[in-house]
Amino acid sequence: MFKEIYKGDFDGIAVGRVSRNQDFTKALGFYHNEYQIQYIFGGQRNFFYEGACYRMVPGTITIIDKAKIAKTNIIGGSSHDRLLIELKESFIAPMCAMFGIDAKSFFSKYHGVYQVGEDDLIQEVLANIERLATGKKDKMTAGRIKLEILRLFLDADRFERRKLGKLDDVGVKTHIEKQKRVHQVADYIAENYDKISSVTVLAEHFYMSNAYLCRIFKEVTNFTISEYINLYRIAASRQYLMDESMSMAEIANRLGYDSLTYFERVFKKQMTITPLQYRKSILKGKVNIV
Question: Full-prediction pTM beyond 0.70?
Fold first, then answer.
């Protein structure tokens, strides 16, 4: 199911909300590779950047620097309800400069995922943006939306206090041994996803039985081990697919897959298109991370 709740372009700022129970190739956004702000109302997605995985869950806001899009992946999360705000640099930068804010520096610094579900100011700003985007439009609507966005920039310190820890670190400080062991495994997968040949080998590395490792990993992360490994592999495949000199077989082998067919099947399950279709879309400039 794909339900586009609303969508509008407001003079360099696009606002849209979509509810879907699987990832489709149909994009929600208006623009290609511009600054983005995403807010999750329901479901979840997975945000990958610099080898770390962060979970986008209800109440989180994700700030995306367009300069880091090539190294960022947002995948998984087959069911989610999210708000997407896209901001053209040519429109947002001059407005921010009027208030002494460098838009480029803001997005570079705060590129990441933040838990803001209990932040009254941010919730008010998002509610106002939705109200303006869905209500009766007039010549002042675009300006009012820009002013609401500006409120986020002017009080940016609140993001620093609410940044999420990477998935690999969440819960490590607890005294529950099961959680500690699982996050050790998650950290190992993040560093070695291309070298792990089987769950059995992984279990042996951590001196656990297959059954026990699989059970506690699912309990703590809500992923099977294979799903978690594949999330990292498919996230990494995006970089390889940008290199036209690499064949699909070479990419599959680099990621740790023994079979090209299996790589293609896993990729299509995650991204809803084949690796070849994805590469062609990149060359045509039709793929973004929304």
Answer: no
